[in-house]
Amino acid sequence: MLRCYLIFIISTLFFAKICASSINYEKYYYNTTIERGHVPKMYRSWSVDFPGYKPVAYTAECPKDATCDPDIEDPNFNPRFNDYDGNVDRRRLKKQINGKHKLYGMNGKYPLNPNGRTGVTGRGVLLRYGPNYLIQVLISRGQSVKEYIVIEPENPDDLVNFPEDFVNSTEFTFIPPKLYDLLLKEFTKSYDPRHANHLLQKTFKNKVELYRGFVADNRNTDNAWIETLTIEYNDPKYKGIGKIKLNPETNPMHLKWQILDLKFFVDSINKVLSKSDMSRASKIARAVRVFFDNLKAGSPGHIYTALRVVLSVASLGLGVASVAG
After folding, report:
1. Is 187 within a domain?
2. Helix (H) or strand (E) run with residue 122 in it
3. How many domains is the chain built from?
4. b vs e for 284-314, b when ≥16 Cβ sit within 10 Å of the residue's Cβ?
5. Residue 270 belongs to some domain of the structure
6. Are 255 and 162 in contact (CB under 8 A)?
7. Is residue 283 part of a domain?
8. Count of CB atoms within 10 A of residue 280's CB?
9. pLDDT in tens, the chain (325 residues)
10. Minimal CA–CA distance to 178: which of 151, 147, 215?
11. Which of 270, 291, 298, 303 lies at a C-alpha separation of 20 to 30 Å from 199?
């Protein structure tokens, strides 16, 4: 019992440290060779004057299957920031379900990242100026041992991801429409459409929020950032979505059921360790770095998974990997 408490304490402290440091963005902007302008920690806040600040401007082309804000200097583009703007919610996520929307600052017509300077201005690769809502969905079945719907990685050594997508608002949308449509299509392979829809609705009535708020994602810029809502839907007795059959080779999102327990992550980290001839301490440090690189600093919505990774790493560090699971 004492060893379990020790693991938990070390894990919690280490996880808190990871979260605190995740605000440090990578040197190069997401998926580019564009180097961010240097922002010392003391000058991160907009409330501190930074005369030598030289951010790089970058706005990517809009993906063909998406709708993006036009150039903010476009005279025909007049968004209502900090407000509901047509079908786009440009307010910050409420910190609590029944809380209030906090306002973010403005510099002329440009919204300002509430967590300060990033070294890049413009929309970046995001769809909107201001907040971009990302919903991450954890769908599980079972009770004592839970299986989760995850995206099968191309590389078997990579960490699994949960389904996620950007939405225009989180006021009434708690599951990305594309994901819902895919699950409904898979369900109709075994049930008639009406009953399939009933089973989905039955599951999605019961949700638990795991996280809501800002994430220090490497796609963020001074004028566009990600705010995420992470929700878990559980079907403990396999009466709803737990009935669905998923084959990652036949559905376009490569979804599958996966048990995500301590043993799963210990085994995953051991795969990394086995490929190296470093000392055990160095191996553990490298494993942590590799897995959190896969998560990406502040990667949207992986907080729940990250905690499991930290628990497994703590077990390895204390030499108790054999008791995992």
Report:
1. yes
2. strand 120-124
3. 1
4. bebbbebbbebbbbbbbbbbbbbbbbbbbbb
5. no
6. no
7. no
8. 11
9. 434 433 343 344 334 433 433 456 888 999 999 999 999 989 999 999 999 899 999 999 999 989 999 999 999 999 999 999 999 999 999 876 567 888 999 999 999 999 999 999 999 999 999 999 999 888 999 988 889 999 988 877 666 788 989 999 987 778 888 999 999 999 999 999 999 999 898 888 888 888 888 888 899 999 999 998 888 899 999 989 999 999 999 999 999 998 876 677 666 666 655 655 555 555 555 555 555 555 444 443 344 445 444 444 444 443 333 333 3
10. 151
11. 303
| 221 found inside a domain | yes
**Apex CA 256: angle with CA 244 and CA 285, to 5°?**
145
Residues present in the chain in total: 325
Which residue type occupies 163?
P
Domain containing residue 128: 3-260
What pTM did the predictor assign?
0.77
